[in-house]
Amino acid sequence: MSSLYDYFSAATRASGIAIGWMRTLLFQRGMPVKWLRLGLVVWLIVVFKHVKIGTWLMPGNVPFAPSMFNQDPTAIFEQMITWFQANLPLLIGIVAASLFLGIILLWVSSVAQFVFLNDVATNRGDVFRSWRLFMRRGLSLFLWRIGLFLITLVVVAAIIILTSVAIGSAVAYFAHGSSVAIVVFVLGLVAGLVLFMPLLALGFSVVFLRDFVVPFMYKYDLTGFDAWGYFLQLFRLHWAGFLIFALLKLIIILGLRIAALVAIVCTCGIVLWPIMVPGLDVLWIYLLAVALLPLAVFFRALGPAFLFELNPAYQMLGAMESALLDGGEAAAAGWTDGGQMPDSASDTSAYGEDRPVYDSAGGSTGDHR
Length: 369
Description:
Elements: H1 4-26, H2 32-46, H3 53-57, H4 73-86, H5 88-122, H6 135-176, H7 179-220, H8 224-266, H9 280-291, H10 293-310, H11 323-326, H12 328-337, E1 356-359, E2 363-368
Helix pairs in contact: 1-8, 1-10, 2-5, 2-9, 5-6, 6-7, 7-8, 7-10
């Protein structure tokens, strides 16, 4: 790979591959059942973000009504303390139940990531038959997601604390004319900006985990640690390409969210009303997962398609043997291995006169560009 333009071209071609594979997967005869099954897998991936036990179990005498803000602040504070003391056991139970259910659903989501990638790569609509084959890799992904979440939590908390100290110091400076406060304000602001860089790196890590590390875990049957090690070797060779990919994906997501916001405003938010109803929100998320399945398939195929553009040896979409579910675990072991892992330390780009053309009907062709 010789230039940023080559990487940008790779990312745009990967988008075309993902669109073509999405059309192959979803828009053929007899697709309704596959849509419902794949929608269920997508629902299993995202549902952990939307289940809110607190909205189901919260006592009905919650004092946080708009009218309370017309009262004396002291009376509001006393009313809140009284309410928390009266409902403390229930609140502790809600928090504990939410954490337990959240952990279970996050594990389910992690295994479902591989099931969905399997369905996308092999043009299937399987939900549970391959579940047990990906449980070990799902557990590894689950632990990595927990770790990234905890690190993000610590970084965000540090940024909030330092920013609060900086703002408080600024208030003290302007109120009392303290010369020390302005120094603390500047130092806190600089520290907050410094900590923003790790937060940005964590954001890129989430993208790389989903789009590249998970496919490597899937194709070569790796743990999260080994897949990250392999990816980082590849990243050192193609860091500009991976950053361009992440930025292009961000632009696509921002465009889709702007379009969604316009649609919500034009429909007076009708699509959001069921989400506000406890119990109905979970069902509505499933219906949305089915309706937006083309986008889910596109984004799931985008990372593997970009890897193919870097090196055809990373071919995943349509390249796997159908023996996974027909031949049992023995066949599955050979199927998920996907062949010998390329040596990322000596990885060579697929660009030039011999770059294979990707065929959305099932892998690369013998043609070259």
